[in-house]
Amino acid sequence: MPRRSPAALSASIRAAGERLFRERGYSRVTVREIAAEAQVDPAVVVRRFGSKEALFLDVMQVSIQDRPELDVPLRDFGRSFVASLLADERDTQAVFLALVRGGSEPAIGARLHAVHEEAFVAPLRARMTGPDADLRARLAAALVGGLLHSMWVVGDEVLLATDHEQIVERYGDALQGLLTPADRSGTPASA
Length: 191
Hints:
With 191 residues, this protein is an all-alpha fold. The chain is built from ten helices and no strands.
């Protein structure tokens, strides 16, 4: 086998780690398995990334800013976001489950918190107005987390069997209610 460049070695290790972590979660993957998949010695994995945990943190990334289909006015975000999650279900599920399953590791738990804050709450809060924008963004994140947990951790059979359009309509509207709540007269806010 021809000698690979350092960049090619790192890319191969990242790809192997990402695939295995998404399939099995953090705790069910070893450095040896990552190395075998990447066709490198396990020492190379450690030399390039420092540890399995560091590789996991490097490859398990998610952000709502990376989704062009979410470049919609805030008043349309609820349904659009839920539709996006369900359309990209396998990828979203893999990252969500990998982070949740690895959450008992301190650094991974910290990454889970950072992903929650940086990848969802902060970008959403930045699009909102009003003195309670932070609270509404956090409640929206909690609402979305609840759906993902029910579907993919608990394995709620009814939700899993429900047509995605129904979930998008109902859950998207619930999410929208947090993002652009109606004023006391019942008129939806424009923010």
